[in-house]
Amino acid sequence: MNARHSEGTATPPASGERSMREVRIVAGVTGPIADPRVLCPVRDVLDRLGDAWSVLVILRLGDGAMRFNALKRAVGAISQRMLTVTLRSLERDGLVTRTVFPTNPPQVEYALTELGASLAGPIGALADWAVTHRDRITSERRRYDAGETDRSSP
């Protein structure tokens, strides 16, 4: 965890970021948490978004509704089963709708709900950040792996 986000730190968060204390207040968590699984609503939502496939599906559907196979091609490198599981999870969370058209064979189309569309913007910003900083992160990884960083302190 970034030192800037640990509780009790004097370093203020960067503009637009919340401190962990602020996140806990917004989430309604006021005291110590005995069970880490019920950390807060933030954790519950981030568990869904922590899976890379969900993020990629939301990004692709941000461009408009898509049929299953078109979405599979657009996401790339995802198995049919994993895409099915991901779409069901996103549908369960109210982020994606599934529409079946009465054709032979039936055609199925997936689209973001209003809630899902409201998430596409922040995820798009994260994707933009990742693209912008990918080379620097790759460079930092190489430097770290080569032992060029001070790892003497915890």
Number of distinct beta strands: 3
Distance between the termini: 12 Å
Strand content: 5-15%
Average pLDDT, to the nearest integer?
82
**Shape estimate:** elongated
Biggest β-sheet: count, sense, barrel? 3 strands, antiparallel
Strand order of the largest sheet: 1-3-2
Helix content: 40-55%
What is the rounded Rg?
A: 20 Å
Stretches where pLDDT is under 50 for at least 5 consecutive residues are: 1-11
> Topology as H/E string?
HHHEHHEEH
How would you explain this protein's 3D organization?
The chain has 154 residues and is mostly helical. The protein is built from six helices and three strands; from the N terminus they run H-H-H-E-H-H-E-E-H. The chain has a three-stranded antiparallel beta sheet. A hairpin with a 5-residue loop joins strand 2 and strand 3 (107-112). Helix 3 crosses helix 6. The chain is elongated and about 65 Å long. The relative contact order is 0.09.
Give a summary of the structure in a few sentences.
51% of the residues lie in helices and 9% in strands. With 154 residues, it is mainly alpha-helical.
